[in-house]
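Hi L., both proteins are below.
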Amino acid sequence: MSAEYQTNKKVLVYCRESRDDYGENYERIETQRDILLEFCEKNGLNSIVDVIMDDNLSGTSFKRLDDIKKMMKNGEIDIFICKDSSRLGRNLLESLKFIEFAQEQEVQIMFESEEFNPELFPLIAWFNERRAKDDSIKIRRVLRHKLENGLVIVPPFGYMKENGVMVPDPNAAPIVKKIFEMSYDGSTPAQISDYLNIVHAASPSEGHSTTRKIVNPIWTRDNVRRILKNPVYTGTQIAGKIEKVSYKSKKYRNVPKENQIVIHNHHEALVSEDIFNYIQMRLKSFKIPSRKPTFNPLSGLMFCGRCGKSIVLRTRQNDKPVKYVCAKHNREGNIKDELRKNWGCKPHAVYYENIKNIIMNYICQFMKDEDFKNEVLKSIDVDKELAHTKETILNLYDKERLLQKRFDILYEDKLKGLLPDFMFAEKSKPITDEIMNLHNKIGLLQSEIERNKSIVPSEQYEQCIQRLYETGITAEGLSKLFNKIIVYEDHEITEKNKETYNINDEQYNELYNNGGFLFVQNAPWNTIILSKE
């Protein structure tokens, strides 16, 4: 080997193996390490600062290299060595970004089994990514074929795997049968879960055939409802319900029902189809409405005074008023000490229209107060806000320049014939889209600066009041004004609460005797108390 490789430069050796490499017969990661160390010894690269071994990590994710990039930035590495370009990764854009970063830090890239050529690397990286995509498609096809032939990956509660076949679990199956029996006789999911907790029946996380890190011994109505709605207990296997968004992503999405794999008479049933269908009709009669309302300005702001859990918004059927309730009560129901200590909670019900009107009236009152207005005007630092906006614009310009540089590299490779036109179009589009997005953000911020130059703080304050009347309360506005809103039933507030929130005797007695709302405001304004009476 040429003498130019004989050096005392600091070397980092990187090894990676992954099940995502789809059947390639790579050696064990320890063997890969030994090959790279032998390569370093032959080439006089004796100053090895670290050997990093990423075993079973996907080549499409580059977060694994974050620590290495920090070492490069801190000057701890002069040469980065791995077996070949596919060991670096199988994501074209991320591979190019990593190489560009290494070059900016003046770190040399070396591969053991191939020469690193900066001009050819984009094409090689594209083939690596394409290989990952093609192999991912093959793996999905093989897995779907196995699922269509009855493969069971994880059996549901009530079943177990025996010689690859799903059979009733002798411990959990009787519990499932009891759930369906009670539901058929008219019990609600909440009543069934209460019964199972009283008799200490094994919960899904306790009785499931797989090992769980967190075991919850308590049954909830949601546990019961999921079992009652699952057709697997009629002997029907449904697979392929979710799929990965992309071979590069860890996120999943739901598969349309018509594309799912349905196998009838796949295994022994725990309930007949007639009983199952009857129960489905009963469940629809008290169906839970949507839990994701489109407008919820008090999200994350209200808390239960008894248990400390969030107060959550629940929509209701038949156009009944929308209301907030304690999340613990919503999940577990009323207090039942016979089941478990600290089981359940009181509803702490708050109607949205009531709390909205209370907050609106209060905000409008104190915003008209001259003392409050003077405090706000004193706190407004126009120069500071302007400087912050300008700093944001400069940061956006820096991001835009980096993206433009990345685009220029791709375009130069295209002109040299290293990057085919279709690949250039595919890889440059997300970059140009992001550049346009940043350009629009910069334009909006610059317009904001020009607009605010002609507005004095007192005018800004008046505009804020006007917007409040026009648009009502917003999540952003409430979060700036209030730290939290605590809802108490009578006899729940404690002396410790009184001390924590600096409540006077009159306010404390009001909350203790009648219950009410404790509005904890952000400094410098005081806490306010509103009785439920």
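That was the first. Here is the second:
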Amino acid sequence: MPSNLEITQAGDRLRDESVSPTETVLDVAPPVVDAPARLDETGVELKRGAFLNTIAMLASNFRGIFTFLVARLLGPAALGIFSVAWSTTDIISKIGVLGLDNAITTFIARSEAVGNRARSRALFRVAVVLGVAQSVVTAAIVIGALRFSNNRLHLQPQMVSALALVVCAMPGLALYRISTAISRGMKVMQHDIYSRGMTEPIATTLAFLLALAVGFKESSPEVAAIVGTAASGLIALALASTLFRHVPPQKEVVSPLGEARSLLGYAAPISIYQLINAFIARLDLIMLGYFVGRAPGVTLATVGVYSAVIGTANGLRKVNQAFNPIFAPVVAGMTATGDHDVAAATYARLAQWMLWILLPLVAVMSLAGGTILLIYGPAFRQGGVWLGIVALASAINAFVALGETVIMVRRPHLNLLHSSITCAVAAGGLLWLIPRFGAMGAAFGILLPYVVQGILRYATLRWVFGWKDSWSDIRPPLVAAGIALVPALVCRAFLGGIVGQVISAAAFVAVFGVHWWRHHTHRKDERP
């Protein structure tokens, strides 16, 4: 088996070979005088794409209705079983997709940058066929392995049965991810609103209620997940295919086999660090499920409460989805045409935007976590403290993911190195913390690796790529958060219960909002 270094070198070599002569001609720096105009134009493009992605992100949160119904109708134990099975499936699905979802965005963005729409269509077809076929094979292997090694896994039988069923959702997941990535590579962001934002939550919720009505009982969440992902994947495929209806005849022959080799070569290191990143993101819940009955206070119901905590905090990860899908093709096009200074300035601008959004959300979840979780039921209130810790971890992960996108486009093997180090820290920390502190150990165990990952990516952008420190860009939201935290903590200290949580969170948001408005109006006054 080739080493990670060999895979990375092969990916870099194939990536270089995949660039057409036209792209090579364009790989020169633009005139310096054009930089401000290009930055303004890019800012408009980013805002438009971010707006559409935000709509898709908000719409996708309707899947929270599905989680709410599972918690209310089946209880925290059933939610815990499904969450562990779904988390495991999400990790395994990265093997089936093999990094094609990220790779195809870069390839199509580069192809569109030089006006080669025929190659984009060929890449679309190759990526869809490869992704779905690989996912079907991977799902079949997993089901067979579970059947033959059931007694050796030392897991709850309900979890094994749920996992064997929910892995059937992998082909639908692959179809959605690759088709949506193709649309994003074409800088068409609204497709995700219809596939993930509307189709998936509606189909999943209706399928759950129908499965529950016909007698699937505890298996209803798994059946609903299969139906929802399949419906989302088919809609994403149909929408992506509309982008290639009127493609002019090809002037040169595009080899599907050659494009497949280029895609897989580029995607190989990406798929490995994607798998590791997914493993890190889900590791706390999976390991908590493994330690049911073996760690203090860890039961199936505890796992269900912790899964609700993760589901709530993961809303912060989705903030990145408002910017990253449009940032990836934009930065890929910039690097293809040599606009590295503009790419750095764009990154700094997005970093500030994300902090203005992330910081108040983290504060609200930390100050009023117990009240927020009451929506799932009284038994979930115990996860309030866990929610504040996991929310901070999710915010850090969302923020540093912008750096991951830049590194992926230019040197994907460095992301592989970062993810490997982060994975080792996460596994070691969780193995030590969960047996001693239970769910609280899981929360701190996932915070630590994301701090390490952020440090690694900052160091790469600062010293490997030579990008200037963007402290002047991120200082305003950080200062505003520090000032807003003072009245919030005072309210929390003197007021108890639900009232104290709500008032302290409202105080933070109010003070932080005033500082944001002052910063925003000051920036507008400075513009010519």
